[in-house]
Design brief:
The complex is a heterodimer. By secondary structure, chain A is mainly alpha-helical. Helices cover about 65% and strands about 0% of the residues of chain A. Chain A has helices at about 5-40, 45-70, 85-115, 130, 135-150, 160. Helix content of chain B is about 80%, strand content about 0%. Classes of the chains: A mainly alpha, B mainly alpha.
Amino acid sequence: MRRVSLPRILIDSWEELLAAALLAVIGFVMALQVLLRTVFGAPLEWPEELSQFLMVWASVLGAVGAIKRVTLVRVDYVLVRLSPLWRALFDWIICIALCGVLAALGWTGWQLASRTSTVATALPITWATAYAAAPALAVIAIVRLLQAQLFRYRYAFFEVEVLQRPMAGAEDDISSDPVDVR
Amino acid sequence: MIATTIVLLVTLMLGVPVAFSIGLAAIAYFLVAGANFLVLPQQFIGQLSAMPLVAIPFFILAGELMTSGGVTRRIFDFALSIVGRVPGSLGHANVVGNMIFAGMSGSAVADMASLGKLIFKTMRGHGYPENISMGVTASAATLGPIIPPSINMVIYGSMANIPIGLLFLGGVGPGILCGLLLMLTFAILFRIRRIKTRPIAPVAFWPALRHAWWAILTPVVLLGAMFGGVATPTEAAVLAAIYAGAVSSLIYRELTLAKFLEALISTAVLSGAVLLIIAFSAPLGYVIAREQIANGLASFLFANFADPVAVLFMLAGLLLVLGCFLEVATALILLAPLLAPSLAALGLSPVLTGVFIVFGMGIGLVTPPVGMCLYVGSQISTMKLERVAAATAPFLLPLIAVLVLIIFFPAIVTWLPNAVYGR
């Protein structure tokens, strides 16, 4: 049974759900392209370019999902050896550093997007559509970072709440149960 | 450039996520050198829109679907049916299973968390000591990024502009050799330590093959589509994911809609994390190009190392040291724009050096303090990290031996690409 409401789950997980949907669209159009090219000898012009645009957005939205789950790769050799007080201080410093990088990327990305008028080769859109992903990433990721750091917010993830997947670290303890699989 | 290096190293050490450490280092350069800041988003987005990188999420998805769809158990049974009668059969099945699974997933961590977990559990259940079980499990998982498909090869190939298909073919020889040497090492340790285990019920070969057949075909479908001219490597990754989904749902009937959605979300998040590093590395690549560091490195190598063997030995040492401290994909992203042009300038084959670098860095998966397979090993076994590292140490020998063998016998890497392309 779900512990939290569906609207809250969707608000907390919309980035990775949209990223997953975009990946599904990329998969579909690329498979369609292979089919049309190899079977019917009539490839389309736009699937590759559409995949590129969607990939940009799927990547930045997926990255926000990784930020929320704190699964970004890091060298935590020093971090895990700190006392709780120092650890808390470092967490704040790291959060500020992340927000700084994102702000720089977002601001320059916004400037680049607003100046770009180059039209895509096969699609009726400009490359500003892709560059706009930079400021979007910055805004969404900063909001999510501050949400977690300032308010200690616990996200209700779709795969945990709706699909009932165990949270990371809560998997079965295999040490207690050596099983003969034969 | 000094400011960039200092910022990169300090922030990495302090635990800033790798992607943002690289971003901070690039920003430090832009500030100090007064470079145009618009290059930052331009390079960032430009990198994400690179077509070869689209393969990454679909290789991840193929692995996730195979794992969710009950393939792991079938591959284990099949591996056991091959080596079930050999003393220490579960250890050998561990290596053989990982070699087969590597042909589907392309990621050592995925191999370790799915197949590795299952086999380790079984080995412990049959009285194999924890140390040798963990050692062979962790080291066999490193075959994931060397036997095609390999996410690390996609990353390196796209960063260094080397055809990914050629890198895939180049990984076959070292992957098989590594597997054989790991089995030999396990057999020697098993004999020396006089390990007594509980017998395991034999698995008949043909029924096991029949059950695992569709899964085993994955790399054939993948490589066949690529080299049969049907699909590009990126499209082949999409086809592999579709094939994995079809086998798991229609043939094995274990992939439900919920599992599929879970795999898709997991893929989006995992690939987002990897691609963020790659995207932030593009501005840093611009810095490396602007400062002509690769040219400087090539000149240094030319001036000091005339012999390719000496260069490769030095490179092997560098890879093994870096592998201890950097996550593999991160190191590849940082090294590719620096090393690929320098080594090509020395006349070394890009495919040879590409596979050499991917394989050499892959050994870092099982070297402390930053060895991802060691962390996963500790997680799945509840053994302390130090114990996992010590258990894996004897199995480093065959991995390093293959690296050295490649230096003296480059054909281990190049024979298959040459045979396929007739060069």
